[in-house]
Amino acid sequence: MKLPLVSLLSCLALIHAALAVPREQPNILFIYTDDHSHRTISCYPEAFDWVKTPSIDALAKNGVRFRYAYTGTWCMPSRATLLTGHHQYGVESMRMEGPYPGSNYDPEKCPFWPKVFRMNGYQTAHIGKWHTGTDTGSGRDWDYQIVWNRPRHTKNAGNYYKDQLIETNGGEAKLVTGYTTDNYTDWAEEYLRGERGREEGKPWYLWLCYGAVHGPFTPADRHLDAYEGIDVPTPADIYPPREGKPAYVQKQERWMEGADGQPRTKSKKRATGEKTAGGKTLTDAVRQYHQGVLALDEAVGRLVAVLKETGQYENTLIVFTADQGFAWGQHGFQSKLAPYDATIRCPMIVSMPSRLPSGKVCDKPVGGHDLVPTFFAFAGLPLPWKMHGHDLTPLLEDPEGASWDHPLLMTLTGASYGSDTDEIPTGGTLLMRGSGVPWWVSLHDGRYKYIRTLVAGEIEELYDLESDPEELTNLALNPEYRARAKSMRKAMVAELRRTDCGFADSLPPAH
Predict the structure, then answer these.
(1) How far is CA 178 from the centre of its chain?
(2) Residues 43, 48, 52, 56: is their CA dihedral positive or negative?
(3) In the list 89, 352, 406, 476, which could disulfide-bond 462, CB 3.0-4.6 Å?
(4) pLDDT digit string (tens) for 423-438?
(5) At 440, is the secondary structure helix, strand, or coil?
(6) 343, 337 contact by CB (below 8 A)
(7) DSSP alpha helices (H): ranges in 349-414?
(8) Residue 261: partners with Cβ closer than 8 Å, 6 or more residues away
(9) What's the CA gap between 135 and 106, in Å, rounded?
(10) What sign does the CA torsion over 33, 37, 38, 40 have?
(11) Is residue 136 within 8 Å of 170, Cβ to Cβ?
């Protein structure tokens, strides 16, 4: 019987790994938040001056903070990438089906890498939000799981902050009350202390997936008075027209001007059934969003403290990031999905003071697909299959001086995955959940970002993120930048080909 290529590569990698396991493998604590912009973290210069996140700041003080991080474009593909090491177009068999967010996949065609860690001496654990198929991989990919399985329990999928149906180790779901950010942290503490689920004597990988700070952006009661009297400036292009932007951006009308001159949100019904609160001022909405981050900051402090108390801190790699960012008025958005920093740029901090430098900032753009090969490198294990990202170890060891010739590719292919993306839909339009955002591809080289909307006849975009961090001036329309746009277009296609993208050679013509 002929083995599939992925299976054959996996077998060879596992055999090799068994002979190459280092004497002491590090633990990995991967803290993953939701819809969480880098602008909410006070150690990022883009944060408002009133933002205070002391525990996450302390993590950056004892680690490496990435200036430009983009793990994905929305919840589900971001997580699929973190489980496979592939861009969305390389995640075979993943699919949306049934009521949102129902989804499924074939684990034979779409293997998740934590299984490889399990087979090589690691104990793997997952706590929190699950958003990637009804099959959570319990007993196959994970030794221990306490998860809110949104794809399975679609009627409960809007309960981000209370009354969640929780599955433990693949068992029957049970309703759990309490504030979910605190619940997840409690369960993670129990695991780290060895009180529940963790096997002594094994290195561990814990993926801790918070639902915060996703809509409806509910803060803990103890934080409802935080950030009183703040000032939130109105983004320059919150209302149309938006010069130099594609047609779909011109149509974004998530905001209306109130009688007091302040932008206000427009109410809308989400696919999970819950309604957002309409009529909130920009200031009130942004304040509530930032309040929801405070419990996450407390969680980081608690988890680091437990690692120190239990003697595990020195041998634990801590990674803090999110599935993507979230816009509050920039380019008219109140969402994610679009290719702009305001919508998808997220925080990323990596800390392990016993091995990595502290208090450093890396300016190179990195993505979620880069984290998976990095985890394998730290564990001393070979990759079980070809992955799309690059091991970040050189940047982590020398954040300011390491040579790094890997531009960052990002894509959005709507709700389509794997070979289902080989053919770009007519018009390339994505209307999932009423977003109106079409398929796109972007390339970020550390200063310039090139964006290609995959709609025939649509304009290209090019932004200088040093001089124009808000991405307001499209340099692709400037004849002086024609050569740079052409060069980045070519580099983008090369990166699509390197990662075996099915539509790499059939991009629609640009204007």
Answers:
(1) 25
(2) negative
(3) 476
(4) 998 864 555 566 789 9
(5) strand
(6) yes
(7) 368-379, 393-397
(8) none
(9) 9
(10) negative
(11) yes
- Which residue stretches of 102-174 are H helix? 114-119
Q: Rounded to whole angstroms, how far apart are CA atoms 268 and 197?
A: 41
Residue 8 and residue 216: Cα distance in Å, rounded?
45
User: Shortest CA distance to 84 belongs to which of 401, 283, 376, 288?
Assistant: 376
Q: Domain locations in the chain? A: 25-221+278-498
Contact partners, residue 133, CB within 8 Å, separation at least 6: 94, 103, 104, 105, 151
Is the CB of residue 186 less than 8 Å from the CB of residue 176?
no
Q: Which position has the token pair 């980081």?
A: 300
User: Both ends of the chain: CA-CA distance in Å?
Assistant: 50
**Residue recorded with tokens 């290529």:** 5
Whether residue 331 contacts residue 342, with contact meaning beta carbons closer than 8 Å, is answered with yes
User: Distances from the Cα of 273 to the Cαs of 210, 270, 402, in angstroms?
Assistant: 21, 5, 48
The pTM of the full predicted model, rounded to 2 decimals, is: 0.94
pLDDT tens, residue by residue, 61-111 = 999 999 999 999 999 999 999 999 999 999 999 999 999 999 999 999 999
